[in-house]
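WARN no homologs supplied; continuing
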Amino acid sequence: MAAASLTERLANRIAASGPITVADYMASALTDPDFGYYSQARPAGTAPLGAAGDFTTAPEISQLFGELIGAWLIDCWHRAGSPDPVNLIELGPGRGTLMADILRVARRVPDWLKAVRLHLVELGPALRQRQAETLSEFQPHWHDTLAAVPDGPAMLVANEFLDALPVRQLVFWDGVWRERLVGWSAEAGFHFTLSPGPSALSLLAPREGQTAHGAVFEISPAVIAAVTEISRRVVGQGGAALLIDYGKIESGLGESLQAVRRHTMVATLESPGDADLTAHVDFGTVARIARESGAIVHGPVTQGAFLNRLGIGLRADRLRQGVNGDRAVELDRALHRLTHADAMGTLFKAVALTGPGMNPAGFGPE
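OK structure emitted
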């Protein structure tokens, strides 16, 4: 008999095989084909993103963000020698808002628009449908994985994509690193437990002598695999990749896994599939893996610094001309939210990955 819910499906799995990793729980909660947060059917006109959903991303806040990303991609395309054709790739396109803004800028550069082949990496059927409605004139191609995108020079963007990739958690307990697992019981529901012995992943964790009892270390094999694939593409085939997400510049200890529903934090193991699960991106590991894969790493820098260097203030000034008072206030609020330290400006980071010889805008003093 088919499971009636993700809770039942996971409970049956744990009962049959024992506790599962945090990464397995997270992957099921987000992408289970029937009940996953990004996979499940939703009422017409609804989506997890936006003010009426569970969370809001930078492209949903203002067109400023997407327009500047579009200009950045076009500039990188010129710096790469204007390859034609070029794969324009977005990982986790959401409702298609960012790509729509990017392609609106592209209309001003006909040669770029002619060269572009649009590829979207998206698992969720409902989100694919929304993207199709938004981007149909650009004839997008959808893929389940980046590896499935055809080879060739690429301009890639991933905004708030890496944070949704599953993480594994290690806990320093009784002098060794043990893996945090998710168990189930009828009395307690889903709950955290620990592996009975040391984890094989402990070789990647900080040394025991530097660690306090109960400390948590997060690692994401999925992020490592994604960054390796992105780096392989830009090094071997040409192009550039821009990764923007929230997280820390340096690797370190700490637990960041969180669940959000209706813009509010909820219990991490509460009702799997009904809330968005994310973890802060370890940009120190991103940079290290990219370099080990042969890529040149630019940044990471804060999102505020990146957008300011691209001229977001000047663009806001131009948009502010000729608009009424309410629209001007709305524009100022969006600018503040995207760039200031008390909003998204410092929590979010930007990093670019390229092959040798490219110096993309936004990561230096210009």
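Residues 63-79 form the longest helix (17 residues).
OK
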